[in-house]
UniProtKB/TrEMBL annotation:
The protein's name: Mitochondrial integral membrane protein-like protein
Basic and acidic residues: bias regions: 20-44
Transmembrane segments: 72-94, 106-128, 135-154, 166-189, 210-230
Spans annotated as Disordered: 1-53
Protein species of origin: Lophiostoma macrostomum CBS 122681
Keywords: Membrane, Transmembrane, Transmembrane helix
Matches recorded under Pfam families: DUF2417
InterPro entries: AB_hydrolase_fold, DUF2417
């Protein structure tokens, strides 16, 4: 009832606009409820059954405290995952104390990115539970569980991933399972509230709800594909751990990572003097691919009696080093590995491409032990900016981020007949996350730390050390600056044995017969020149 006539008359005297405004201000059904809105705070309009309309916003699973708590925890997990994601992103460039892993660091970052994706879908589409979403998330959980078992069960992969990788995949499994639980509880809460407030569970969905379910399911299917690629890449990594390796893996830098070192041949003596051992340094590719084959041929035909080679951090059988990692740090790691293995000089250094920077720094730090230097199409310190350009670094980072998907490796293994040797140190090694990380590390400090180290090495280098330079004719013809810098490198010492420009040879000079022939001839001359001067160089 509207009350007394007096009141009705007073109401009639009010302007019509004020009445409408007053009703809008105090009508509780004009306020959009939120997840914090308590049902008992809202008056219900009477109807025949005493139930709310199914489309009433008050009919919500948020009325249940258990659903609200699940949402709070989901948001909390999202915040924790984001902080961990940022730490892993930073560790790719600068390793925080205790967070270095011997692998690339891209896998743990990838798992955390997938975790963030799962949580974002769960938070954004929290109030639109669907059976399809629970099924797809269950598949993701199963695939991630397989990944976790692989990482924990395979010693080499477990060693490479370290505790950050293990923690990331375990967290990914937990969050995937949590998303299933959350969606199931929300679906239960939605049904309970509909039965309590409307008298029956709602079977209809609005266009908005159907759109939310469709989008969430599409995202989950994408996550399934990503998780499946992760699992396939791990399966390939298991296969790659069975590749035979000559020599040993030696822990360096306070046992933070291991590098691969191998030696071929026996120590020989000329009179009372020990003959020099050839120490090989790879260029832009793993040394085992083809550079070591040239050294083996030189050993077989008697040009040299013994040689040693190693893999820089991240190459072939070596672990990745903490970031940042400069050429001088690589030289120190090589020194430590040789000392641990009991290898002693004298050394004749044979380096190629970017590896010549490491060889030159090593020489300056072992003046007594280095009796000769041979540089094959070497990289000049003034050109380090080419491998240290920001564009190249961003490209390497991008390839590293998607490397856990292993698309190229999978295609190569299935359709192109790529072998495990190809992937570890052969023509497909560039697809490996460890190798990409090593290249990125070189890029980050090439024009700063590494350049300063090699410039200092040039000032320290002894002037009477025998030197050989072998340059690519193709590179010199197509790049005038490269040719000028090759000539400048012939002045590293005052004892130039030979400078040969191999006319038809590419940057990897040993890829051609003429290049291999010239290199072997010059190496023989270098060995002879080094053997003439056996007196101590420093008093």
């Amino acid at each position: 009832m509207w009350g007394s006539k007096k009141n009705r008359d007073d109401d009639d005297e009010q302007p019509q606009d004020d009445v409408a405004s007053s009703r809008r201000s105090y009508d509780p059904y004009e306020r959009e409820p939120s997840e914090r809105t308590r049902l008992l705070d809202r008056p219900r309009p009477p109807n025949a059954e005493g139930y709310l309309d199914p489309d009433d916003p008050a009919v919500s699973p948020y009325n249940l405290w258990s659903v609200r708590i699940l949402r709070y925890f989901t948001v909390l997990f999202l915040m924790i995952s984001f902080v961990w994601w940022v730490l892993l992103l930073v560790s790719i460039f600068v390793s925080p104390p205790g967070m270095h892993s011997r692998g690339s660091g891209f896998f743990d970052f990838a798992y955390t990115s997938l975790t963030l994706g799962n949580l974002l879908v769960a938070v954004i589409f929290f109030s639109a539970p669907a059976k399809a979403l629970r099924i797809t998330t269950a598949i993701i959980t199963g695939l991630l569980l397989i990944d976790m078992i692989i990482i924990l069960a395979v010693p080499r992969i477990r060693l490479e991933e370290g505790w950050p990788g293990i923690a990331s995949v375990v967290w990914a499994v937990f969050i995937a399972a949590w998303c299933i639980l959350t969606d199931r509880v929300v679906a239960w809460g939605k049904k309970e509230e509909e039965e309590r407030l409307t008298g029956r569970p709602e079977t209809r969905r609005t266009v908005k709800e159907w759109s939310a379910v469709l989008l969430a399911t599409i995202f989950s299917i994408i996550f399934i594909i990503i998780a499946l690629l992760f699992t396939s890449t791990l399966a390939i990594r298991i296969r790659d751990t069975t590749v035979d390796m000559a020599g040993d893996r030696i822990l360096v830098d306070g046992d933070k990572y291991a590098v691969h070192l191998a030696c071929v041949g026996n120590t020989t003596y000329t009179g009372k003097e020990k003959d020099a051992t050839i120490l090989l340094e790879a260029g832009e590719e793993p040394l085992e691919y083809d550079f070591e084959h040239w050294a083996w041929n030189a050993y077989e035909n008697g040009t040299i009696s013994r040689y040693c080679y190693w893999d820089r951090p991240g190459y072939a059988f070596s672990d990745n080093a903490p970031s940042p990692h400069s050429a001088g740090m690589s030289a120190d790691a090589l020194s430590e590995a040789l000392a641990v293995a009991g290898e002693e000089g004298p050394w004749i250094l044979v380096g190629a491409g970017t590896g010549t920077v490491v060889s030159r720094i090593f020489s300056s730090r072992h003046l007594k032990q280095v009796t000769g230097i041979m540089l094959v199409d070497p990289l000049h310190e003034d050109l380090l900016h080419r491998i240290g350009s920001p564009g190249r670094g961003f490209l390497l980072w991008g390839w590293g981020i998607i490397s856990p998907l292993g698309i190229q490796r999978l295609v190569g293994a299935i359709f192109n007949g790529r072998t495990r040797e190809d992937r570890v140190y052969g023509k497909s090694a560039y697809q490996n996350g460890k190798f990409i990380k090593a290249q990125l590390q070189e890029n980050l400090v090439a024009d700063s730390l590494s350049k300063n180290e090699v410039v200092s090495a040039r000032n320290i280098q002894l002037a009477d050390t025998p030197l050989v330079i072998v340059s690519s004719g193709i590179k010199c013809r197509t790049d005038n600056e490269w040719e000028r810098k090759q000539e400048d490198l012939t002045k590293l010492t005052d004892n130039l044995v030979a400078w040969d420009v191999v006319n038809k040879a590419p940057h990897q000079v040993w890829d051609t017969l003429e290049g291999r022939t010239v290199m072997e001839r010059d190496l023989k001359a270098l060995v002879k020149a080094a053997s003439k001067d056996r007196t101590p160089k420093i008093e």
